[in-house]
Amino acid sequence: MDEDGLPIVGSGIDLTKVPAIQQKRTVAFLNQFVVHTVQFLNRFSTVCEEKLSALSLRIQQIETTLNILDAKLSSIPGLEDVKFEVSSVNVNSVTNGPVAQAAADQQTAGSPQPGQNNTQEEGLQKTEVVTENVTTVAKDPRYARYLKMVQV
């Protein structure tokens, strides 16, 4: 036995002769564990709820801004007739970065259906012509510092 009256457990001790731990002490340990666990989960759920509500507010603000922008664009005469084509590969690579490019490469590397193959080739040829005439963000000197920071 040690100074607290607890048995010292080792290889040479006969556990049948060691007295059991008091039930009050076991219940106290379990109660303490349950209380601390519940407090942690309550704190965690509160933080998660606050973050979700903040995110929801940001999404609502973005939607409101988008609706305002849409209203401003729809008020400009002559834009109803403008049509544009966007390649899904280019959209993914711009919005999601290198990860989307890898996914797009995997999609194009897969076996496309025969009817879609010609459509993809025509779309790629059109986007190549468009990219030759347009200055991209990567080539714009105003964004050079930002792109360098992103690479670092």
For the structure shown, list the relevant keywords:
152 residues, mainly alpha, 5 helices
Can you walk through the features of this model?
The chain has helices spanning 23-74, 88-96, 98-109, 114-133, 144-151. The model is unreliable at 91-95, 99-104 and 106-113 (pLDDT under 50). With 152 residues, the chain is mainly alpha-helical. Helix 2 runs antiparallel to helix 3. The chain is elongated. It has a domain at 21-78.
Q: Classify the helix fraction into a percent range.
A: 55-70%
Secondary-structure element pattern, one letter each: HHHHH
Mean pLDDT across the residues is 74
Q: Per the principal axes of the C-alpha atoms, what is the gross shape?
A: elongated
What is the C-alpha radius of gyration, as a whole number of Å?
32 Å
The secondary structure category is: mainly alpha
* C-alpha termini separation: 61 Å
Q: How many helical elements?
A: 5
Let me know the number of strands: 0
Biased composition (Polar residues): 104-122
Keywords: Coiled coil
Family: Belongs to the CCDC53 family.
GO biological process, one term: actin filament polymerization
